[in-house]
Inverse folding.
């Protein structure tokens, strides 16, 4: 479902943000809560994940959402079986396996078998390796027709518009100056 939602947004078939999402995004960017944005808060509005305080807030929101037992940390089981993010694939053992691997190999930095807010933040940070790897994985999945995990010039040309639309993502633009 996420993939379909993402593709509709990238193709412009769905508004970038609903009114509710826009209000939430504005309130999140408005660090001091005065109802107006200064220049730093404007940067946070346009490129939220590149601003430290917004990244902290998003990481905290995710932690609270995944934390079923409200102990301020997310266990492997809570991460793998998070209901809201598993609509349509809750019984898919392949997805379970992928989530377990992501949690263990990438997200659980201190190897204590739990995720805290700092580990969520590190995972989400668009300047970090995790974000860039996930971005590349998504782009590869979309363009790699023969599924050999390598892109030929023909595959890149075949998905030219996909790569061009990808640059419209404000976070990606903030990181990749070639766009």
């Amino acid at each position: 479902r996420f993939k379909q939602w993402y593709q509709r947004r990238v193709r412009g078939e769905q508004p970038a943000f609903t009114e509710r999402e826009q209000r939430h995004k504005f309130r999140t960017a408005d660090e001091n809560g005065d109802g107006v944005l200064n220049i730093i808060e404007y940067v946070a509005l346009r490129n939220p994940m590149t601003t430290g305080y917004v990244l902290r807030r998003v990481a905290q929101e995710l932690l609270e959402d995944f934390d079923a037992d409200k102990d301020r940390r997310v266990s492997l089981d809570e991460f793998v079986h998070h209901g809201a993010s598993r609509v349509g694939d809750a019984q898919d053992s392949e997805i379970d396996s992928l989530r377990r691997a992501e949690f263990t190999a990438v997200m659980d930095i201190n190897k204590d078998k739990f995720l805290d807010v700092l580990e969520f933040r590190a995972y989400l940070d668009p300047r970090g390796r995790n974000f860039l790897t996930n971005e590349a994985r998504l782009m590869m999945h979309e363009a790699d027709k023969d599924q050999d995990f390598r892109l030929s010039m023909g595959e890149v040309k075949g998905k030219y518009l996909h790569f061009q639309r990808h640059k419209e993502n404000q976070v990606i633009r903030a990181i990749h100056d070639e766009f």
Q: What stands out?
A: Residues 169-179 have pLDDT under 50 and may be disordered.
